[in-house]
Design a protein that fits this description.
Elements (H helix, E strand, L loop, with lengths): L1 H14 E2 L9 E6 L7 H6 L7 E6 L16 H18 L2 E6 L1 H17 L5 E5 L7 H7 L8 H10 L5 H5 L1 H19 L15 E7 L18 E6 L9 H17 L3
Length: 265
């Protein structure tokens, strides 16, 4: 039993960053970072929320404390790891997901597996800077030729995405690893396909979509057909990384808190 517990604990420590633990929280908010991203930004959100919401951030292999691990090969591998590590945790108390960009697609894929395999559903799905996974626009992401793409092309994609804060790209070593991570994350994203079966609405929870007002427009309409719950849409000032602005982070915190509290836990 001890080794089983230890394995679970180490799995959690490896996969999830949660610097502000709140054992008495009513709900857990699990955050999923953007392509090439780590846990540092979202992990700090724990400080912004009240004691009723515990925030953690998912860490994929190939970065931060998992730097030496090989990158995940496809979306199924990513989803299976996250689900198996978090399952026990998510059965204990209500949870919500927040994903930004690439993280939105991962959070959706994880939520889908939890629902289909275990009958578990987040009380709210918050997505940010992403197309609906059942939209035409999502298919264009899948057609970006990454295998043959030069670093320069990948850099262009990062910039089009309003990419990574440019300061990081100026440091050669960080820039190189960031490019590699971004490329590998994009590869994972391209292995994800979601075909919505007719009449099959996967979720019943509410979905909220956030976007930067100066970001390139995302195809959001199709989120409507993915839940029998409510879908709402908010534009916040800024580009693709609008959520790094302190004023937007405060808006998001307040709004997410209100949604979770209204879920009547």
């Amino acid at each position: 039993l001890m080794s089983c517990f230890l394995g679970f604990f180490l799995g959690m420590e490896k996969l999830v960053a949660c610097p502000y633990k709140k054992p008495n929280a009513l709900c857990r908010l699990i955050c999923f970072p953007w392509a090439g991203g780590g846990t540092s930004q979202f992990a700090q959100w724990g400080n912004l929320f009240s004691s009723s919401i515990e925030v953690s951030s998912v860490r994929l292999p190939g970065r931060e404390s998992r730097f030496t691990e090989p990158f995940a090969k496809d979306m199924t591998t990513v989803v299976n790891e996250i689900t198996s590590v978090l399952l026990e945790n998510l059965q204990e108390k209500p949870f919500a997901f927040f994903g930004h960009s690439f993280g939105s697609y991962i959070s959706f894929a994880v939520a889908l597996q939890l629902k289909e395999k275990y009958g578990l559903e987040p009380i709210h799905l918050f997505v940010s800077g992403a197309h609906a996974p059942n939209s035409e626009a999502f298919l264009t992401i899948k057609s970006i030729p990454i295998c043959d793409a030069e670093d320069e092309e990948i850099l262009t994609h990062i910039k089009i995405l309003g990419g990574t804060p440019s300061v990081l790209l100026q440091n050669e070593d960080i820039g190189k690893h960031l490019l590699l991570t971004f490329r590998e994350d994009l590869r994972v994203l391209q292995t994800f396909s979601f075909e919505k079966a007719d009449r099959n609405i996967p979720f019943s929870c509410d979905i909220t979509c956030f976007n930067g007002s100066e970001d390139k427009p995302h195809d959001l309409e199709a989120w409507h057909s993915l839940t029998s719950g409510d879908t709402s849409f908010y534009n916040l000032p800024g580009g693709h990384f609008y959520l790094l602005e302190p004023s937007n982070a405060i808006f998001l915190t307040k709004h997410i808190t209100r949604c979770i509290e209204n879920a009547g836990l």
